[in-house]
């Protein structure tokens, strides 16, 4: 029953996400039509090495768009119920408060996972179509500029899905934590402020201490050298683990706050 409650409260956000996905499908279909009518029928290996830029763009563009969806999703759940003065009804015994909180978080993450997965499947389809249209010169692999290596399309899309999922999960977790702290859906504003503050802090630290750099909100599998991507990062596994722990810290903190709050 609880997943159904969460669905009813989050369905407007999901409808908005569905509209964005529909727009993405339309844009991808138009891109495929344009490619189909292109006079260029072949890429040689040197030309195709530039295709790696497509995946860097796919990571950052969808992260920016889906972060907004995750931010809206963070305003759904117990924090909003408390603001609507029905928290005492929802948080009834014998259920622990933590039970409701973690069901909120898991349901929200599951819905975000579906949105991110469908988005990446559409992008995967476009990438695959481009590769097949130009006779797949690297046989299912994608090369990066500068001879940094060749990687399977499935590997790249899987890594991008993981990065976007953890990034959106972090946005969702921070915002959800904020609604618990304020006991109101207005917590989404606090969440946005915390995220913007972290970005601003990173810029200040970078300005005054150029050798120090705070971790980026978006984990990236790509290695850069003077703003030129060179392939996959050697420290990607550590980065993903650190971001995942940071993401989980916020629902844990939200549980601590909720269990000590007066309802």
Describe this structure as you would to a colleague.
- The chain is 70% helix and 6% strand.
- The protein has 263 residues and is mainly alpha-helical.
- The strands form two sheets. A two-stranded antiparallel ribbon has the order 1-2. The chain has a two-stranded antiparallel sheet with strand order 3-4.
- Helix 1 packs antiparallel against helix 3 and helix 6 (97-133) runs antiparallel to helix 7 (153-182).
- The model has no long low-confidence stretch (mean pLDDT 83).
Global mean pLDDT: 83
- Give the H and E element order: HHHHHHEEHHEEH
Output the number of helix runs: 9
List the domain count as a whole number.
1
Compute the CA-based radius of gyration: 21 Å
Largest sheet: 2 strands, antiparallel
Can I get a quick summary?
This protein is about 70% helix and about 5% strand. By secondary structure, it is mostly helical. The protein has one domain (about 1-260).
Search tags:
single chain, mainly alpha, two-stranded antiparallel sheet, 6% strand, globular
List the SSEs and their pairings.
Blueprint: H1 2-36, H2 45-48, H3 52-73, H4 78-83, H5 87-90, H6 97-133, E1 141-143, E2 150-152, H7 153-182, H8 187-208, E3 222-225, E4 228-232, H9 236-259
Antiparallel strand pairs: 1-2, 3-4
């Amino acid at each position: 029953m609880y997943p159904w409650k969460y669905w009813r409260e989050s369905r407007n956000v999901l409808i908005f996400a569905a509209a964005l996905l529909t727009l993405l499908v339309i844009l991808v279909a138009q891109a495929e039509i344009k490619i189909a009518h292109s006079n260029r029928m072949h890429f040689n290996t040197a030309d195709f090495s530039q295709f790696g830029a497509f995946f860097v763009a796919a990571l950052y563009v969808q992260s920016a768009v889906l972060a907004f969806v995750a931010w809206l999703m963070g305003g759904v759940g117990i924090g909003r119920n408390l603001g609507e003065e029905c928290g005492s009804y929802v948080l009834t015994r014998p259920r622990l408060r933590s039970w409701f909180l973690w069901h909120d978080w898991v349901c929200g993450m599951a819905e975000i996972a579906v949105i991110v997965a469908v988005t990446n499947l559409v992008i995967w389809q476009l990438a695959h179509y481009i590769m097949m249209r130009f006779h797949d010169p690297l046989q299912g692999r994608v090369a990066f500029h500068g001879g940094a290596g060749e990687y399977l399309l499935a590997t790249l899309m899987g890594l991008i899905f993981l990065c976007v999922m953890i990034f959106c999960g972090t946005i969702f977790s921070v915002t959800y934590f904020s609604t618990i702290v304020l006991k109101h859906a207005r917590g989404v504003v606090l969440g946005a402020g915390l995220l913007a503050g972290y970005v601003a802090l990173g810029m200040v630290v970078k300005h005054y201490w150029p050798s120090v750099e705070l971790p980026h909100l978006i984990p990236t599998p790509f290695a850069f050298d003077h703003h030129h991507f060179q392939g996959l990062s050697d420290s990607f596994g550590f980065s993903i683990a650190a971001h995942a722990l940071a993401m989980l810290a916020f629902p844990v903190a939200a549980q601590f706050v909720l269990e000590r709050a007066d309802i």
